[in-house]
Amino acid sequence: MEENIMNWIYLITAGIFEIVWATTMKLSHGFSKLNFTILTIIGMIASFLFLAKATKLLPLSIAYPIWTGIGAVGSIIVGVTLFGDKISPITWIFITLLLISIIGIKLTTNN
């Protein structure tokens, strides 16, 4: 049981680092700012390492969509709040559906 919880913590952490590297990649301005470029690379490596740890026991068919979903929804939130991205109301409906899907995948898995 405790090992199962750790795999989900690894997966969530991987998703958070997915958001980190996407954000720092934007801040790197096409990899022209060294500090943000380095943070992007660190975020990518950390994200993949935590995903690899999570998929040791979690099925890929569950872990991968949740990882990408966390990264997608988190990056949208960062884009709107930090970078002032404009999202249409209909797009927010689809973002909500994506979030519901991520939660649904977790709730319906046996892991």
Automatic annotation (TrEMBL):
Keywords: Cell membrane, Membrane, Transmembrane, Transmembrane helix, Transport. The keyword Transport applies. It is a multi-pass membrane protein. The chain crosses the membrane at residues 6-22, 34-52, 64-83, 90-109. It comes from the Bacteria. One of its GO terms (cellular component) is plasma membrane. GO terms for molecular function: transmembrane transporter activity. It is found in: Cell membrane. It holds the Pfam family Multi_Drug_Res. Belongs to the drug/metabolite transporter (DMT) superfamily. Small multidrug resistance (SMR) (TC 2.A.7.1) family. This is Small multidrug efflux protein. The lineage of its organism: Bacteria, Bacillati, Bacillota, Bacilli, Lactobacillales.
